[in-house]
Amino acid sequence: MMRAATERQFEIMGEALTGLRRVDPDLAASVPDLPRIIAFRNIFIHNYAEIDDSRVWEVVQDHTSEVLALANRLLAEYGPA
Fold first, then answer.
1. What is the spatial distance between Cα 66 and Cα 71, in angstroms, rounded to a whole number?
2. What distance in Å separates the CA atoms of residue 62 and residue 79, rounded to the nearest whole number?
3. What is the domain partition of the chain in residue ranges?
4. Is 19 left (phi over 0), alpha (psi -120 to 50) or beta?
5. Tell me: the pLDDT tens digits for 32-47?
6. Do 60 and 6 meet the contact criterion of CB atoms below 8 Å apart?
7. CA proximity to 11, closest of 54, 56, 72
8. In the chain, what is the straight-line distance between the N-terminal and C-terminal CA atoms, in Å?
9. R_g (Cα) of the chain, nearest Å
10. What is the DSSP string of 22-49?
11. Helices 34-46 and 2-23 meet at what angle, rounded to 10?
């Protein structure tokens, strides 16, 4: 269940960033590694058989804090008042 939930969150994040790139390309350009994040999401959606669980875990361990900090920064700067 944890694995499925983790994968789903990557799917949601990638989809949200794809939408951001459409509606505000300049803001999207400020997101580090945006193309890689979206590509990671696309693997979950389109190439499920190619998912490497150890790579997913590595991303969770090594990059979750960066993504959370970015999300908090964007919410503080552009979120609802």
1. 9
2. 26
3. 2-78
4. alpha
5. 899 999 998 998 888 8
6. yes
7. 56
8. 35
9. 13
10. HH-HHHHHTSTTHHHHHHHHHHHHH-GG
11. 130
Q: Cα(68)–Cα(51) distance, rounded to whole angstroms?
A: 23
Residue the block writes with tokens 């983790």: 6
Q: No. of H helices and E strands in the chain?
A: 4, 0
pTM for the full model? 0.80
Q: What percent of the chain is predicted at pLDDT more than 90?
A: 43
Q: Which residues 6+ apart lie within 8 Å of 27 measured at CB?
A: 20, 74, 78
Q: Which two tokens stand for residue 10?
A: 């990557």
DSSP string, 43-79: HHHH-GGG--HHHHHHHHHHHHHHHHHHHHHHHHHHS
- Nearest Cα neighbor of 15 from 47, 46, 43, 38 is 38
